[in-house]
Every structure is written in structure tokens, then in C-alpha cells.
Amino acid sequence: MSNKNSPLTAVLYKRVSTDKQAENSYSLNVQDKMTHTYAKANNIEIVKTLCDEGYSGTNTNRPAYQEMKKFLLENHVDVVLVHKENRLHRNLYNFYNDINFFEQHDIRLIAIADGIDSNDDSASLAMAVQAVISENFSKNLSKETRKGLLAGAENCQHMGEKPPYGFKVNHDTGLLEIDEVTAPAVRQIFQQYADGFTTGEICKWLKEHGYKTNNGNDFKANSLNSIFHNEKYRGCYTWDKATPKNSEGHRNGHAIKDEYIKIEDGCPAIVSDELFSTVQDRLAVNRNRANRANTKRYYPLNSKIFCSECGSKMTGNVQYSGNHKYFQYRCANKCGNKSIRTELLENSIFRMLGQCLFSEPNQQAIIDTLNENAKVQKQDNDTAYQQLRTKSSKIETAQNNILKLMESGKATQIIMNRLERLDNESEQVQTKIANLDRNGKPYLYTFDLFFLFPDVQLLYA
Length: 461
Ligand SMILES: [Zn+2]
Hints:
By secondary structure, this protein is α/β, with parallel strands linked by helices. The chain contains 13 helices and twelve strands. The protein folds into four domains: 144 residues, Resolvase, N-terminal catalytic domain (Rossmann fold); 124 residues, Hect, E3 ligase catalytic domain fold; 60 residues, no CATH class; 93 residues. The termini are far apart. Zinc ion binds next to loops.
């Protein structure tokens, strides 16, 4: 037992977390005042003060806390003084570890605001209750913090760390404002994409004009994509597509969807609704194109165009750059002449063809020829179809005969095997018929012609 006249020695431990809104009653100031007043009144001498600022109590990964444990092992003190138990831990397991540790080293824990002194007989129950409350409170912390954020979001205040590129935050109101230094780049990004430039070309332009992302990096396709999808640029305030983080800093995949906020005209627009929606349309087209790119692409100009350097035929091929596929015509001789993007070449050539070759009189002749071809192709298909039908009905007859044999009990293993073969054969024929139904129409002709003349009607289309 300590001498009544000599003061008890104590380590003072303080902690504040980053969730300021949820922990505003635990400011360092309050913790300081309360503990020092208590120490003075109870003849306690604070020999060391340790403070973790911006650390969660849910784990022990805190520098000042670790230092305290080390100090307690190397120096004997009588008391660990905290404002509240939950300053020490918000984790039941860690809390009880420390209670054991304190007992082993004959250290009293005093949590002033909880009225807990581990020297008291009734302390263990109170400590247990407090520890349970602390841990539960921690689990609700992110929810509480989120409520605070939601209130801010409903007023269209900026909630994240950095505002989206092109915006700045008014520090008095918390509202988003247009940053006229970076906003011109946002307008360029949208306009150029709407005009048909690729993300790569836009990134290059931004680099050449000295624009960097908020993090000071060069723009990449990914950074552009998040800009294209951010509705704040058209003046629609949105919050929060991301879900709240849990105490370990991980996001819960099962987001609370009804907490997603969307407010039209909730922030100033950097681009018009029209431009924003043009960009969304193009994004959709490119998504479809990317999906279609998995199937074989049709190169209508294959071997019909020639290299300007060596005169060889140019053929279509795919080039991969990062996650993107680019279709291009390339010199088959690989002489080193530049490749040409398929869309650029095809669009201009077809437009010229439409204007020059397919004049009114030519048009009729072309339609007649194509229809003649289509008729021939249809006849060929009809013949093939008829042959398959005949084969199919022969198989069916054979199958039925075998079934009759089986019913009369005369089927042998050999006959059974034959039935199995017939079944397989039947399946193959049916597949061929189905393919003919799907592909038998003069598909290519209609495709080519509609590409040039959307209003042309084909007899067999
Ligand atoms: Zn060439």
C-alpha cells in the first residue's frame, strides 16, 4: 500500500480519433482538464503524458499507446489515468488484456468520467459494462459519422477530401465552386470526346497544354472515364456512390442504397446537359463496340486499298493498346508505312462513294444486281434446306422403325446402338437447318447496302 502522504504516480493517456463529429465530447482539451483536476484533487502526480491524435481505439496500432505499454514495463507507476475507458480501448478483447496486464503489474486504472477505479471492489462489473458499451459504440461510429455526412450532403456540401477536378470548395459554405484554372480542361475533355477524339488523344492534348490531375499526374484514360461519369459536371450534385468504411477501413459491399443523394442544380455546371448527354451516348456506343470487338470484325476495304509507299494491299487488323482494341488497315507488306484507323478511312470512303458512284441512275442498277445475287443465294439456300429436310425425315423414319422393334421386344444391342447413332445424326441435321434459318438470308448484301443507303429496300431483305 502506498504511503498516504506521498503522491501516487500516474501515466496519463489521451486519445482522439479522426471521427471528430462522433467524438466531439472527447476533445484533448476536455481530457486534459478533467484528468488534471482529478489528479490534483486526489494527490496524484502525472509523471508521463501520452497522447494518440487521430487514432482509432478499435486496435492497439497506436504509437503513444505502444509507448505507454513499454514505459509501464520499464518503470513502476501506481496509476494509469484516462478520461474515459473508451480512450484506452474500443475493443473488449484488448481491454481485458490490459486489465490483466495492469493487475499483474499492480497498476490501478482510473477512468474519471466513468467513475471507475480498479481498486474498488465494484470496479470489475462497471469496467465490463463500459467496455461492452465502448465496443458497441465503435461499431455504430461509422453509422453516426455517416449521418453527419448525410446532413451535409443534403445541403450539397462537398464531403470528400478533394473536390472533383475542375471544382474547388468554398471554405465558408462548404459548397462546390467552379475552379476557373482547371475547369477549361474539363470543358475540353467533354467537347473533344463528343467530337470523336479518343481518350488517348485527349490525354495527349491535356499533357501538351500542361494540365495535370488533382494528384499532379498526367491524365490517363481512367481519369477521363471517371470525369465522364461524374454528374456534378452538369450541375447535378451526387453523393455517395461509395459505401461507408467499417472500423478496419474496408468498405462494406452491401451499400445502403437509399442513402444515395442526387440533387439537380445542386452545384454549378461546368458543361451543358446537352454536351454531357452527347458524351454518355458516345460512351454507350463505344461500350457496344468494345463488346462487338470480341467477335470477328468485318473489314469491307480489305485488299481493296493499297499502300501509298510500296503499293501492297492493305488489310484490316486489330491492335491492342492497354485495355483498348483499335481496328486499323495496315500495309500487308509491313513496309513501315503508317496504319490507318478503320473508322476514319471507311467513313470517308463510303461517304465519297455515296456521293460519286451511287448517283440516281447507278443506284437502280446496283439494286437490281444485288437483288439478282440475293435471289440466286436464296435459291441455293432453298436447295440446301430441302436436302437437309429430306435427310431429317429419313432419319425420323428409321428412328420410328427401331422404336417399333423395341415395342415388340425384338430390339438387339446392335439395333439399340444404331438408334443412338441416328439420334446423334438427327441432332446434327437439325443444327444445320437452324443455322441456315439464321444465316441463310442474303445478310451481307443488305448489310453493305444499308451501310451506304439506309433507305434502300431489298426484295429479299
Ligand atoms: Zn507498304
